[in-house]
Design goal:
heterodimer; A: 303 residues; mainly alpha; ABC transporter involved in vitamin B12 uptake, BtuC; two-stranded antiparallel ribbon; 12 helices; globular; B: mainly alpha; two-stranded antiparallel sheet; 2 strands
Chain lengths: 303, 351
């Protein structure tokens, strides 16, 4: 039983990494704009698609394709901000209006991919290099899982240091905590929003490539479930709190895999139910998430 | 004077009902198949929109959970009305439910009541949450309900869904219920009870200072809204004749939200206008989506085109006219009267 548990934990770590990276993007954008970027899951999907196309159709070397995919999802996130969010914010639209617009952007992106590339699942190209397995006693670890985990930890530490120590990062934290005061201190909040979208979307792109490596599929609807679970992870970690979101992502990912692994197989289709139940329980016990959120609640929603 | 006014009002109402009945009779006589289906679907969407507007627009509790509520109501009515042979073949139900053969109206009301109970049970705990957390939890209600629908095979036949649901609806039923709903919502919004909802929607703190029990009235808003929404879901099922756990998923929810946002939140005519625009647009654009041949040029099928176009429309509306097409203006007799009079004046002025 112990060995089985350890094996399942190892399997869970890559899913936890995927959710953690998504959650960081959510938490940054939510902290700064005060709204759920509903289309974050679609940015994730775009990253995976670009990588798939570059490798399968144009035979670009995998590493370059992955880097280009991250760049593409960053561009997609910036375009989304430019086309949908900035006009709404410029007109000082109420939060709900912007939320409906982002809901629209999410479905619009998903269905436009469905329209051009159909709903079919495609095989994500996984280089041979990643298929290598290491055995340690009875426990098997794929090189893929190790690389995913290490990459995620490195990138997350970079983001955390960026947020904590650089001027731009400090400004981002300031806007997230109290937009008005930060603006009075001379911070250009439009620039901060662009920075948040750029970082969040790049992280979504990295996460998408990890998703492709782990599950080996790409389809237009792939961003929906990880997107929502990433947001749940962000809520779990306290909105606006970047390290909290990372931990939240790992908790949700590992919890989900363990739920499937430990309970009888008849219950495994109920996986989404587990995530939402977890969210409800946590919101009841600690409505602000596990860690201290970095937002002033009164200012954002007006309640 | 008073009797004269009342007589005038009675006259207007009866003329209105007469005109509406005449139009419906014409539609019923001359339209067949697909086109009558579009008209019926518009009626159903308008009913759902009115139900959703009570919570989302008037009481300003933005919930996306109505898809899950509609799913429950739809399963309730279909389990009550499906043929016994079908139920015994595909489902494992308790005996009383398996033998249940309810007529249309009681099944509808039962669906509404089931919707009310489920919404109270599901949404009540979520009231503790604020702002986006509430929206997130309400999305969760949809997903959890779909998931339960897929996995509770004994009751729902799993992802394959139910077929052979009797077609009870026709244009008269749908529009009768639609007019009843409009009348009811109108009366509600102009009563003391309903004005409390509007007060909560405008300013929650002010409403509570004025002595409105905010939580209680929010629950009332949910009860009334879910009843109407549940009936809408039941009518949809009886119109289509089949269902599966995915019918009221987030795409459907988005369409309803788009209807409310495009038409204009906070008014009855806005909800109906939005329902009309989106329903006719989606239904009439359907042949385009499935591919066609134009002057020998083959246009490939573009599944999803409608959703993309709706998404674009909604983003544009949210950017350039966030209050919706009608804004807060209600179309009423007086508005029409004024418009006719103004047009008349203009014509007379020109000649």
């Amino acid at each position: 039983m112990g060995l089985y548990l350890v094996q399942q934990l190892i399997n869970a770590i890559s899913y936890g990494s995927i959710l953690g990276l998504l959650a960081v993007g959510y938490t940054m954008i939510y902290g700064i704009l005060g709204l759920i970027n509903f289309a974050h899951g679609e940015i994730f999907m775009i990253g995976a698609f670009i990588c798939y196309f570059l490798v399968s159709l144009y035979h670009v070397p995998w590493v370059i394709a992955a880097l280009l995919a991250v760049a593409a999802s960053t561009v997609a996130g910036l375009l989304l901000e430019r086309v949908v969010y900035r006009p709404c914010i410029k007109r000082k639209a109420p939060v709900l209006t912007v939320f409906i617009a982002s809901f629209g952007a999410s479905l619009g992106l998903r269905f436009s991919f469905m329209m051009f590339f159909t709903d079919r699942r495609r095989a994500f190209p996984i280089p041979e290099f990643f298929e290598k397995m290491y055995f340690w006693g009875e426990i098997a670890i794929g090189l893929r899982d190790i690389i995913i985990f290490v990459t995620t930890i490195v990138i997350m530490s970079l983001v955390a240091c960026f947020i904590k120590y650089t001027r731009l990062g400090t400004a981002m934290r300031g806007v997230s905590f109290d937009t008005k005061t930060a603006q009075l201190m001379g911070i250009n909040s439009a620039r901060i929003i662009v920075a948040a979208f750029a970082i969040g979307s790049a992280l979504a792109g990295i996460s998408a490539i990890e998703y492709g490596l782990t599950f080996g599929i790409v389809n237009p609807g792939m961003g929906f479930t990880p997107g929502l679970e990433g947001f749940i992870a962000a809520v779990l970690g306290g909105i606006g709190n970047v390290p909290g979101a990372m931990i939240g992502g790992f908790l949700i990912g590992v919890g989900e895999i363990l739920f499937v692994a430990l309970l009888p197989p008849e219950l495994s289709p109920l996986r989404p139910l587990f995530v939402w139940a977890l969210l409800f329980v946590i919101l009841f016990l600690r409505p602000t998430g596990l860690f201290r959120p970095n937002v002033k609640f009164a200012g954002i929603w007006g309640e | 004077m008073r009797t004269r006014e009342n007589l005038l009002k009675l006259g207007k109402v009866s003329i209105g009902i007469g005109v509406a009945a005449g139009i419906l009779l014409l539609l019923d006589t001359y339209l067949r198949g697909f086109y009558i289906g579009v008209i019926i679907l518009f009626g159903i969407n308008a009913i759902v929109c009115l139900g959703v507007s009570i919570t989302n627009s008037h009481a300003n509790i933005f919930s996306l959970g109505f898809g899950g509520i509609m799913l429950i109501a739809a399963y309730a009515t279909s389990l009550l009305t499906l043929p016994v042979a079908y139920k015994s073949q595909f489902l494992q139900l308790p005996l009383w439910l398996e033998n249940a053969q309810w007529p249309f109206v009681p099944a509808l009301i039962a669906a509404g009541i089931v919707a009310v109970f489920s919404s109270v049970v599901l949404v009540l705990p979520a009231f503790r949450l604020r702002g986006h957390y509430f929206i997130l939890a309400s999305i969760g209600i949809n997903i959890v309900m779909t998931n339960i629908g897929i996995n509770l095979r004994a009751w729902t036949h799993g992802p394959l869904g139910l077929r052979n649901i009797p077609f009870y609806t026709n244009i008269w039923w749908i529009y009768g219920i639609l007019f009843l709903t409009i009348f009811f919502v109108w009366k509600l919004l102009h009563s003391k009870f309903g004005r409390a909802f509007v007060a909560i929607g405008k300013d929650q703190t002010l409403a509570s200072v004025l002595g409105v029990n905010v939580v209680l009235y929010k629950i009332y808003a949910f009860i009334i809204g879910s009843f109407i929404v549940g009936i809408g879901g039941a009518l949809w099922v009886h119109h289509i004749g089949a269902m599966n756990p995915h019918v009221f998923e987030l795409v459907f929810v988005f369409q309803i939200i788009a209807m409310l946002a495009i038409g204009g939140s906070g008014t009855i005519s806005g909800a109906i206008l939005g329902a009309a625009i989106i329903t006719f647009f989606t239904q009439l654009a359907r042949p385009v989506q499935e591919g066609f041949i134009l002057f020998g040029l083959k246009v490939p099928p573009l599944i999803g085109l409608i959703q993309v176009l709706i998404a674009m429309i909604i983003i544009l509306v949210m950017i350039y006219r966030p209050q919706g097409l009608l804004g807060r203006h209600e179309i009423r007799w007086e508005t029409l009267h004024e418009a006719v009079r103004a047009a008349h004046r203009r014509i007379r002025g020109q000649t």
